[in-house]
TrEMBL record:
Sequence similarity: Belongs to the SLC13A/DASS transporter (TC 2.A.47) family. NADC subfamily.
GO cellular component: plasma membrane
Annotated TM spans: 12-34, 46-67, 88-106, 195-216
Organism expressing this protein natively: Medioppia subpectinata
Pfam family, one: Na_sulph_symp
Entry membrane topology: Multi-pass membrane protein
Protein name: Uncharacterized protein
Length: 257
């Protein structure tokens, strides 16, 4: 029995018992206890860090939840509106660029979970503001629903495309790495830098192609939104009012510190 004390089975059982004890007496948070295997199993050589890649997925979702809980997604939404403007095609382009970039470093699902609240916050700001109400109220709900569909599709496309840009961008890339290492154990060709240099140009081209496709698919809607999203006769004055509204909402959130 004692000759197995140094085996991986014993070390694994030790972590399980330690977690059970911590859950019962709660010396630390239950959620922190649940993350103990992420650190202890690689340290005790039970599994390698390469086999713990699922925690990237969990960590990305936790980050998305934290951003939504802290209202950081509202800051990002309002700041993005200030940068790209209020036309649907510009908002879509900005959302796709941000989603693509985030998806390069965290999982596609986690990126989507983080970006959807941002789009919803943008639409809420535009819907509830009296300065930004459409002229044709009979089509208000229909147009808003179509805009929402277009922006959510842009998130789905750009999240999947962005995941191909880096070696850690999505779980399938990591699976490929494991298969490649098994087939060619002595090869050092599949590196993060080489993957990025090969995949990044195609990623950018695909995102631009997806944006053009969505733009053409919703061209009538985008033309409508550009001309009907304000109620003032002068488009320049109405855009200034929209900008003032967004800046005011952004200031109401206070400083980050």
């Amino acid at each position: 029995m004692f000759r197995h004390l140094g085996s991986s089975r014993f070390r694994c059982a030790y972590v399980v018992l330690l977690m059970a004890l911590y859950w019962m007496v709660e010396p630390i948070s239950l959620y922190a206890t649940a993350l103990m295997p992420v650190a202890l199993y690689p340290l005790l050589n039970v599994i390698s860090t390469a086999q713990a890649t699922n925690m990237m997925f969990v960590g990305g979702l936790l980050m998305a939840i934290a951003i939504e809980h802290s209202n950081l997604h509202k800051r990002i939404a309002l700041k993005t509106l200030l940068l790209v403007g209020t036309s649907v095609n510009r908002i879509m382009f900005g959302i796709m660029m941000v989603t693509m970039f985030l998806s390069m470093w965290i999982s596609n699902t986690a990126t989507t979970a983080m970006m959807v609240p941002i789009v919803e916050a943008m639409l809420k700001e535009l819907d509830e503001s009296p300065e930004v109400q459409p002229k044709n109220t009979n089509h208000d709900k229909q147009k808003t629903a179509t805009i929402r569909k277009a922006l959510l599709l842009s998130i789905a496309y750009s999240a999947n495309i962005g995941g191909t840009g880096t070696l850690t961008g999505t779980g399938t890339n990591l699976v490929l790495t494991g298969i490649f290492d098994d087939l060619y154990p002595n090869s050092k060709d599949l590196t993060f830098t080489r993957w990025f240099a090969y995949a990044a140009p195609g990623m950018l081209i695909c995102v631009l192609a997806a944006w053009i496709f969505l733009y053409l698919s919703h061209q009538n809607l985008i033309s409508y939104s550009a001309h009907q999203i304000t109620s003032n006769k002068d488009m320049d004055e109405s855009k200034d009012k929209i900008k003032e509204l967004i800046e005011r909402k952004h200031k109401e959130l206070g400083s980050l510190s």
